[in-house]
Each structure stands twice: as structure tokens, then as C-alpha cells.
Amino acid sequence: MDWGFELMLVSRVGLAALLGAAVGWEREVHDSPAGLRTYMMVTMGAALFALVSLHAGPNAPTQLAAAVPTGVGFLGAGMILRGEKGISGLTTAASVWGMAAVGLAIGYGMLLIAVLSALLILGVFLLRYWSKSLMHAGHACREPE
Predict the structure, then answer these.
(1) Residue burial 2-11, b: 16+ Cβ < 10 Å; e: rest
(2) Cα atoms in the 13 Å half-sphere on the side-chain side of 44
(3) pTM of whole model > 0.90?
(4) Rounded distance, CA 23 to CA 39, Å?
(5) In this predicted model, what pLDDT tens digit does every residue of 7-63 receive, in sequence order?
(6) How many independent structural domains does the chain possess?
(7) Residues in CB range of 90: below 8 A, 6 or more apart
(8) Residue 44 lies in domain
């Protein structure tokens, strides 16, 4: 057993956990149906599937890369709710799906794109709150007509 290689694999799973935690923490703070643990598990699981597939045979990486989004899609479907106010949970489901892709990228060694993509996903959520606060600030400054 090559301990250096094993540590590299574990570090990739650790990176997946950190990126999943960053997005999951943001979702948990805003009472999303999926939170810290869900995002961490999805991102780490996808990274593990990718890492294992690299050692399972010549066709395994492409087969697993195709299977993970389908499996996570079922998970995401459970987060989408229809209520009196309409449909909710679409963004959460899409972000869980996106974080699975981040996990796959980490597992396949595409670390820069994984980190930048996770930051972009996090940025989408932050953009929503920034735009809401700007809209509220704009309404507060307006004079009545």
C-alpha cells in the first residue's frame, strides 16, 4: 500500500467535505430542506464514486460519471415541494445536483474547477440575498408618490 497515494485520495474526500460544508452551511442558515450534512454527504459520495471508478476498470469512470447525476436527481426530486404558494425547492435540488458534479470533479482530480464551481454555486445563493437587501434598501429610500 502506497501511503502517499492513500493520503492524496483522503485529501480529495476532505476537500469534498469542506466544499459541501460551505454550501450546506449557507443552506442550513437559510432553512433549506437540505443542509450541512446533506451537502457534505452528496459531495463526498460523488468524490468517492469517482475515486473508486478510477480503479475499477477502463469503462468504469464514464459509467459512474453518468450514474451519479441520475442518482442525485432522485434525491433532488424529493426536495421539490408543491404548496399553496407554488413550487419550492428547485434551487436547492439544482444545487445538490451541482455539488455532486463538484464531488465528481474532485474525485477525478479537477480540483481548480471543483473549487471555483463550488464558489459559484455559493455565490448564486449569496447573490439572491444581496439583491433582496438592495431591493429593500431601495424601497426604504423612496418617497411616497
Answers:
(1) eeeeeeebee
(2) 15
(3) no
(4) 7
(5) 999 999 999 999 999 999 999 998 888 899 999 999 999 999 999 998 888 888 888
(6) 1
(7) 80
(8) 3-141
